[in-house]
Amino acid sequence: MTKFMNQKNEIINKLRGSGLRPTKQRILIAKNLFDNNKTFHFTVETLNRKINKSGNEKISLATIYNTVEAFTNAGYLKEILTSKNKSYYDTNIKSHHHFYDEGSKELTDINYNQIKLSKVPIPPKGKKIKNLEVVIRIQK
Amino acid sequence: MTKFMNQKNEIINKLRGSGLRPTKQRILIAKNLFDNNKTFHFTVETLNRKINKSGNEKISLATIYNTVEAFTNAGYLKEILTSKNKSYYDTNIKSHHHFYDEGSKELTDINYNQIKLSKVPIPPKGKKIKNLEVVIRIQK
DNA sequence: TATCTAGTTTATAATAATTCTAAACTAGAA
DNA sequence: TTCTAGTTTAGAATTATTATAAACTAGATA
Description:
Two copies of one chain form a homodimer. By secondary structure, chain A is an alpha+beta fold. The first copy, chain A, contains four helices and seven strands; from the N terminus they run H-H-E-H-H-E-E-E-E-E-E. In chain A, the strands form two sheets. Chain A has a three-stranded antiparallel sheet. In chain A, strands 5-4-7 form a three-stranded mixed sheet, with no helix packed on it. In chain A, helix 1 crosses helix 2. The longest helix of chain A has 16 residues, at 2-17. At the A-B interface, strand 4, strand 6 and strand 7 of A face strand 4, strand 6 and strand 7 of B. The first copy, chain A, binds a DNA duplex through helix 2 and helix 4.
């Protein structure tokens, strides 16, 4: 009970902190994304299914799109690099890496400390490195 | 003259070697992709524009799609990992890395020896590493 | 507490990238 | 030269995403 209250307040503060008005839609979406201890990958389609089944109140697809974009801009989500023509998101925003299985087209996280780089290039003039990701393509 | 003949024959052999019948469309597309010394990035849209302007005979968009897919499957092209919802291809099929500029959304090649890894994870059981790519996101 | 308004949500239309379809064409074997 | 499996093509269909504009609401203000 108190636990749930705290969790909701945390979400509300998080949203306010990024200038996002804490609407009931955004709170519900945030619960679905950040509620659990586990991070995961999703697409707008899978998130929409997850939210719009379970006894939940319905949220329109347009709002799911808008909210995922807003959360990404706020830094709560990270868009994943793939070779598909659909957007994939990761609730794990820490620097980390991926295995990309070309057979199943599945992405799996690789922990940050599982990969070490001993040489990194200098970025082009006027630019700085924001993030570095390694994708390891695997197959049978 | 002879030079051009050789080049065309090379392309024909390359196609035959992958079980692709050397049609005039495939040969023309291959010339546009593999003709020069430089490798480059492209989308179906940019390739289509390149081919269907210059006095060339016209090739249908569907054929460009089919051919790019066939060339990718044959290993002549590599699909680039991005966070866009459009396919990007690279005529450089050697292992190499990219800068991804989040502002301009431009990809630039990083030479293979500009990056060194000192630790790489073991792939999941039954799988082996096919390729490893580093994407460095840069910004102002 | 009631009012007001900028920000938000929504259904739906529009757009963009890609894939499908099935009829016409062609490389090259026989 | 004939034949046919493989290929090309225009256009329709599909899929993911973005735009539109009317209705709704959080929360500041009176």
